[in-house]
Structure prediction request, 422 residues.
Amino acid sequence: MAIDVLLGLQWGDEGKGKIVDFLAPQYDIVCRFQGGPNAGHTIIIGGEKHVLHTIPSGIFRPDCDNVIGNGVVIDPITFQREIKGLTAAGLSTTDNLVISRKAHLILPTHRMLDAASEAMKGEKKIGSTLRGIGPTYMDKTGRNGLRVGDVMQSGFRQKYNELKEKHLGLLQIYPQIEFDLESEEKAWFDALESLRSFEHIDCEYYLNDAVKAGKKILAEGAQGTMLDIDFGTYPYVTSSNTTTAGVCTGLGVAPHHIGKVIGITKAYCTRVGSGPFPTEMEGPVADQLRKAGAEFGATTGRPRRCGWIDIPQLRYSAMINGLTHLVVTKIDVLNEFDEVAMAVSYASNGVEVDRLPYDLTQTELTPIYQSYPGWKASTDGVTKRSELPEALEAYISEMESMLDQKIYLLSTGPERSELVEF
Ligand code: GDP
Ligand code: IMO
Ligand code: MG
Prediction:
């Protein structure tokens, strides 16, 4: 059986959580393969809102097992908070959530380093979620990190202290930041107990055995393609491979096991944090998108930057990921617009281009837009493509033809059931 992949085609927050939750009944196992609590995946079930940061979005489906893979970085404090939230909502997680021993741990001092590094960058800051993601992946590739498996071994406290001391030394070169290390450290060690109480697995064996046994597996991406450490808008990116390639290293599965690649785009585009965003707008249209789409970060509450979709950017993401299935979310957000648009190419130094340049921070790109009439109609209760307003159908058909990709699912609202299957 193949491992299907679901990931974001833009700068994150495309609605991955909602779609994974919807698709999960078709799968035996849902796995996170990269990122950490920088992610905020929202799922709304019967009006009740849940935001997941580390735990896969298959957790609300009782027959689905959930795996936190080796490519993920885990903050025990956030993890414990998520478990408590799910327990309070009446969900049991003890039998359907397992964690890779090789996943790396985010220490309190990683969060300090994240904040101090951003403070030092000043105007050039990445706009990190300050969850310690960058410093933790730096320790992973620098071969200094602590992993989930280490917490079960003797000498863990000493390893922790050694790494903490190293971080405190490093912090000397940065501006001072406010951080109550003592109380954070206490909370961290308390939370480790929660992490210890779950089954720890060798994810690579677990999943390859599952593939052999014919189980259906879905890998849930975090962030989005344009935040990928290699292919995103570097240096304004996150610290992991958010793309299909990240599934192999983040779970320990071979490329030939990858099946469908389900990519998600909003019907428009958002970005949170700093960095280039060619179709970003300011003014009434952006304000209307932000308001209608409730575009405020699920992790940090920051207002998201808004603009129209960007076809060359989506083509780039489709290429990098090997897209096979396209999902469009938040189409309902455009319901009240007189006119909608998409960027179909760019003007750069007087020349029309349709490829992303090496460095978007150094290249002037002016999007060339094509406008379409709005449909000014509700999409509530629509379940079939044939029931869509005519102008909406025209808009999404245009998107399909420009991306040379048929739409597979169209999301018309945040609730689990608000979807049109094509
Ligand atoms: P993720 O990080 O990709 O899982 O996305 P987030 O949860 O950060 O952000 C997506 C937001 O849009 C959440 O508040 C969702 O509840 C909401 N959402 C998802 N799909 C739709 C949709 O089709 N329409 C509307 N209006 N909201 C949606
Ligand atoms: P989900 O999974 C949107 C952004 C941050 C910042 C940059 C680096 O919910 O789509 P980091 O904390 O990783 O060092 O931040 O990446 N970012 C996200 N933006 N959605 C996310 O996750 C994000 N995770 C990180 O805003 O610009
Ligand atoms: Mg999010």
Notes: The chain has a mean pLDDT of 97. Residues 8, 12-18, 40-42, 44, 294, 298, 329-330, 332-333, 411-414 surround guanosine-5'-diphosphate (ligand 1) (CB under 6 Å).
